[in-house]
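Protocol step 4 of 6: record predicted structures for both targets in the notebook before any analysis. Target 1:
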Amino acid sequence: MQRLKTINALSIITVIIPTILAVLYYGLFAQDIYISESRIIVRNPTQSTPSPLNLALDQTGFGTVNDGNNSVVAYLQSRQAIEQGNQDSLITDAYSGEGIFWFDRFGAFGAESNEQFYRYFSDKLDVDEGATTQVLTITVRAFDPKTAQTINQRLVEQSEELVNSLSGRAQADLISIAEGEVEEASKAARLAAVELARFRDTSGIVDPVQQSEVGLQMISKLQDELIGAQTRLRQLQTYTPQASQIPFLQTQVRELRGQITRARSELTGGRESLSSALAQYEELEVNAQFAEAQLAATRAGLQEAKAEARRKQAYLEQISAPSLPDYPVEPRRIRSILAAFMLGLLTWGVIYMLAIGVREHRD
């Protein structure tokens, strides 16, 4: 009789009372939970379609991943998503209304902080990525069907704003870098042009190359005249040494030689010569041409960056809009009552077997 009393008392505590409580709670008091579900995917035109092997490896952490999907998942599971969606107190009011059973209501046990609500709402929100597809399934549980749909829709809209913001920021950064390179190249081109103009002003030489060609042509012409004068001089000295033209030709030859010497000195003389100016001019000209070529390349790079930014624009696509539930899927009342009963039986069996073991050990 003592053992039967012990067994009855143990079964009452571990099986009957928990089962009665489960029947009362799930049968009478538990709040109906409506589930709104939506499906989205973040698409990037430049992202290649993953192979079946990558999809399989992705489940183990070694395959390629969709960065856009990962960003959305991380955002939806963050506190910022709740704060942005709860600016008009829609989310907190949905779970803390007076019409909700106190055990299911947020704040029933004195919890009022944002951190406590974050942990509470984390149980009401599920974000799952499919095993074979990269479709994100957003599930929101609420005590009112319309509220569940509204919260789900708001989270989808916030996710779309996030994707657009990240995509726009990436595009702006790409274009900004290219524009910065164009600006630097433009400054270098302007500086090279200014240096070339300053050289022309200080030296008084517009184009040393052309002036060198003119000087060479002049020297060539003077040399031709010198050769002609020397030829006539030798002829007169040979055949008519007493000719009166000989002194004139000798003077002409000396003058032509002096002109040629001075012309060569202007071309190849010291620091003030045309050859020295030509070396400086060619260096400045090469710098200016290089700067112009670099500017043209950066401008082409800017156009390419703009085209690449347009190609890389990511966007969020709704595959399935947030549903409006017409039946409370949770709580699963009968299943939960049976689970409480079976858990009570399991607890009773474990405790009873432990008690028998202890009693036999004492005996």
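Target 2:
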Amino acid sequence: MKSGRHAKILEIISEYPVETQDEIISRLKEAGYRATQATISRDIKDLRLVKTLGSDGRYRYISAANRKADLRSNFAQLFYNSVISIDCAQNIVVIKTLSGMANAVCAAMDSTDNASVVGTIAGDDTIFVACRSNESALSLNDSLKQYITNKSTGKQHVKDLTH
């Protein structure tokens, strides 16, 4: 019963933009499964489901295995629409975003697995990116600026950051 329910939950979240546990319960009920909120909460933990910001600006459940692919695919658009400026000081790249967008941009950026990045930290509208060297910070700074330089023309330039 549990494995069938787990499979159905994974099917539901892959087909529908599910935002709440109640939505999962309702869709399971439609499919003939009965479950309580506590059971769904445990299932979410067992399946390692996470909520992520979709391209429509709404949160939804996805499996952790799909999280990185989902974040990578949305990175360029999220970065283009949210970042105001980028600058660097020695081995630190500082990214200014619209208010409330730093965490989403930072999570998306972390999903790129850039080898020159040691770590990131985000506030409400600012991200600090610690790079391995001053040179790698300058390179990252230049690469990231490519995402926002064409705002005036409306053309988006996508560049692979996983070098």
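Step 5 preliminary note on target 2. The longest helix spans residues 64-82. Strands lie at 49-53, 59-63, 83-89, 92-97, 117-122, 126-131.
Proceed to step 6 after PI sign-off.
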